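Hi, does anyone understand the following?
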Amino acid sequence: VRSNGLIEVGKQLNKMGIGGPVVVASDNCVGPLYGTSLVEQLSAEGFQVSLMMIQEGDDHKDIDAVGQLWHAFLEAGLDRKSTVLALGGGVVGDLVGFAAATYLRGVNWINFPTSVLAMVDASLGGKTGANLAQGKNLIGSFHAPVSVMADTSTLATLPERHRRNGLAEVIKHGVIADPVLFSMCAEGWESVEEEWDAIIKRSIGVKVKVIQKDPFEGGVRQSLNLGHTIGHGIEKASGYKLLHGEAVAVGMVIEARIAESLGLAETGLADQIRAVLEGVGLPVDIPAGFDRRQIVHYMQYDKKKSNGKVRFALPAAIGDVKVGISVDDVDKFLI
């Protein structure tokens, strides 16, 4: 993680011994901002490189986009020693990583996240995939990138709503394992805007430690699902009009209320989490007009089901999350 690291990608790839050809895969939002200059830089460093762009947004995170990537890899002449560089947010990283995992049974890829959400969450851990009509990330694989390079200067072109959106995952990491990070976010939006480097590095540290303990989500890594079980249902029910982090923020508050009702957490934890999320401008309630039954319906497609039941990661305190919790009558908490 560094500011202005984008201008040194070519040199870094040469140091790593990366061969060609290289495909820079981005979307039609980030690609025009950084893609052309990155291709020129890589070409100047001696790489045979091409740029391809997919449609931006979660509503385009599907198998059709993966197919477009496969065809672009073929046209660029990629072989098993080639490398794909994903330039963009979490959707780009997930799709490009999955396409790389399945092209020629797996080629190397590098993740260059350009959003807060991607830097602190989606780019880490090797999870790749795409959505189906029934829910998020129902197809995918574990295929870790050979490197993750983050340049915080790219956040200058990220819309404010998306910067706030990424903070949901940062705050989640604070709730899971870093009370200091949680306190930094509790200082409010203006303070956060001045501390991006420190906040992002600290948030990454939480996720990396969790992943190292549990690479394939068999135990403690499930704590990273805090807010996501309900959040994914809300996100899907919104038709992806709510951003991922916005839906997760609402999910965290509801799941903290569930933890209180089950006696896992002391009364007041949900309000504490709610206040910090509100302080950085994130939503904390299900928007008016949402069909609660639809949210519950989409939750049934959650990847974290076990023995036919959806399992929750629930907060016990700031810095402590319990995993594998079965909850009955979830719909009563969505009122």
Remarks:
- The longest strand covers residues 309-317.
- The chain has a mean pLDDT of 93.
